[in-house]
Amino acid sequence: EIVLTQSPANLSLSPGERATLSCRASQSVSSYLAWYQQQPGQAPRLLIYDASNRATGIPARFSGSGSGTDFTLIISSLEPEDFAVYYCQHRSNWPYTFGQGTKLQIK
Amino acid sequence: EVQLLESGGGLVQPGGSLRLSCAASGFTFSSYAMSWVRQAPGKGLEWVSAISGSGGNTQYADSVKGRSTISRDNSKNTLYLQMNSLRAEDTAVYYCAKDVYSKNDRFFGWFDPWGQGILVTVSS
């Protein structure tokens, strides 16, 4: 089973700042990595798939990069609605796994 | 608009059984692989099971393998998860989720959208 490790676990930033979230895989997942956003009490929402492709309707301030074992989600300028928990997920092989999440909080 | 609506959750005793349902609308249900993903209270996401559009291919996490069965009725646009021998650690919100793409009855493994989730509590 591929283990995804996200860092940091918690991130405190102010609106307008740039957020950089990381996800590291225990073995190569090629570009088969996605990012999801989860607001409190809501279902997750797909942001990025195949490491760098924005899902439908996702603002351009969200971008993803990386391949192999190291991946990054960048939010270029934080909006109030961006403060949430973010998860990475791979689909390289079975079972699919998720990272433990990064909680992005308002500073 | 794509909609996924889970039902069938609730309180069940350890060792008991439960069948979750996910009613789908707004897309050609039989063309898309579907998955179940769960989230224990205050915890992260755990993929549980997936089924291809035709229903001919199924996959399970080790944590539920042998105790759960995923199935679908494409005539009713409904996904199911039969869970047996339930344990306290199965307590979670269970989400159904649609694969983003469909092609040749394959799994693509990116989930969008998700249902609103249904709570399963395993406790005596």
Give a structural overview.
The complex is a heterodimer of chains A (107) and B (124). Chain A is an all-beta fold. Chain A contains no helices and eleven strands. Chain A has strands spanning 4-7, 10-13, 19-25, 33-38, 45-49, 53-54, 62-67, 70-75, 85-90, 97-98, 102-106. In chain A, strands 2, 4, 5, 6, 9, 10 and 11 form a seven-stranded mixed β-sheet that branches. Chain A has a four-stranded antiparallel β-sheet with strand order 1-3-8-7, with no helix packed on it. In chain A, 36% of the residues are buried. With 124 residues, chain B is mainly beta. Helices cover 0% and strands 49% of the residues of chain B. Chain B has no helices and eleven strands. In chain B, strands 2, 4, 5, 6, 9, 10 and 11 form a seven-stranded mixed β-sheet that branches. Chain B has a four-stranded antiparallel β-sheet with strand order 1-3-8-7, with no helix packed on it. In chain B, a hairpin with a 6-residue loop joins strand 5 (45-51) and strand 6 (58-60). The chains are: A mainly beta (107), B mainly beta (124). At the A-B interface, strand 4, strand 5 and strand 10 of A face strand 5 and strand 10 of B.
